[in-house]
């Protein structure tokens, strides 16, 4: 490595700090990444300026008290490059943190208070691992340019700043460079104490070991490991994770799932005894054998499905759905050996998924989507067996907007089974059928008549009768989209209007039940016949 390219936002911010008489350092992950010759995911600046002082220099900044960090809004997307950042954040921000000391964590969740430190060395001392506890002095840029009190444009509005190797000043009080070279994850100071202060570091140790192992430039670096004493402390203090707030575990878990070796990471969490405090439900699948359509047990299959979703660079929702799609299998398993069955595992699994994601405070949209994908991952389709009406009902149940994602989960499921059957043709055919019926009405909104029409034609007030009639009409139209014309439906409304309410209720329910029974029946038979997964 001979030069570092620092994004212009960072150089601008650092120069303003230095011009005002404060220090500015790059710290944490970005220094580690620079030294490893990787592209940093985000750039963090540490300074001796206090939050109020930073805010004076940057009037538009936001001070987040909880972390003692001042965020400076930028509009440059290069500062938000990770998928996690993109999926979780809406504002682009450069974060400046005042030097601080390790706070006390009485509740093992959040530091009780923020204490500011005087020196960068003290600030590095509160950081988790030696490789994350290095800083790079940015004061050099000013000396390099030899200009004081310059305007922003002097460092280049549109060019990044390059520091050459000879000019680096790395502050490394804990021999992070040596651990980096030897590929060792080691806590700063006594590991037992450091994990006791903040148990999230247990998960972080595992993530860095797996992530760095993979993603050094020039192919897998391999050989990264957690240092012995640190690893022993992870195993010994695994239970401390119980104390950690769900949302912190969630954020770390999302980072894990977005890394290139997410499946390996989940396996390592299990090996070190941490998974039982994160997603114990997944562990139920360990050693649970499947039927003749699988060569892997449930646990391995879930991890392989996740691995496939990662390799395809699928979204966070699909990754979680792939990991959890069969979480309900152990609780629904009947029989043993090649003929064992898992009826209803998608329903049980969806409920378990809701439990997991709620416990970890996943945001509603992400939660709902993952649960939905788990719930419907097991659909039956075969060319010539499922009618167009069946495909319309499938669309109605699943939602047209979810079909692409559902097919991706299915793909991960299929490949993760180790014995992929000839599904692609069937799935392509399903896509063709969906295309064909796409414009057909599948929801009450898409009917050519609405509740107002029903009330007007029959001269009735709002009430359950209106709803029943619309349900019956939708069922008829799902069977035959040709019936969705204003004229035909109006005639139908008049006919239905003559029936009394009990009868209509029965029809509305009956039509639905009959169809579901019919479809369910076919599915059940097919599953028995072919041991459909
Ligand atoms: P990534 O590439 O995943 O972003 P990172 O090292 O930048 O890795 P962040 O979570 O962004 O990790 O944290 C930035 C820095 O803050 C870390 O490098 C570390 O120095 C410090 N840090 C983060 N979390 C903790 C923690 N729980 N305890 C101590 N220090 C931490
Ligand atoms: Mg980071």
What count of domains describes the coordinates?
A: 4
Largest beta-sheet characterization: 7 strands, mixed
Which superfamily, in CATH terms, is the homologous superfamily of the largest domain? Beta Polymerase, domain 2
CATH uppermost class of the largest domain: Alpha Beta
Count of individual beta strands: 13
Inertia-based shape: elongated
Report low-confidence residues grouped into runs of 5 or more: 76-91, 146-159, 517-533
Mean pLDDT: 85
Within the CATH hierarchy, at the fold level, what is the topology of the largest domain?
Beta Polymerase, domain 2
SS class: alpha+beta
What does the radius of gyration come to?
A: 29 Å
Fraction of residues in helix: 40-55%
Which strand order do you get reading across the main beta sheet?
4-5-6-3-2-9-11
Ends distance? 50 Å
What is the annotated CATH architecture of the largest domain?
2-Layer Sandwich
Proportion of residues in β-strands: 5-15%
Number of helices in the DSSP assignment: 25
Helices and strands, with pairings:
Layout: E1 3-6, H1 8-19, E2 25-27, H2 29-35, E3 44-47, H3 51-57, E4 62-64, E5 69-74, H4 83-88, E6 92-98, E7 100-101, E8 115-116, H5 120-125, E9 135-137, H6 139-145, E10 161-164, E11 170-171, H7 176-182, E12 184-185, H8 191-197, H9 200-215, E13 225-226, H10 228-236, H11 246-258, H12 262-271, H13 280-283, H14 298-311, H15 316-324, H16 329-332, H17 345-359, H18 364-376, H19 388-398, H20 403-416, H21 423-437, H22 451-458, H23 464-479, H24 486-497, H25 501-530
Parallel strand pairs: 3-6, 12-13
Antiparallel strand pairs: 1-10, 2-3, 2-9, 4-5, 5-6, 7-8, 9-11
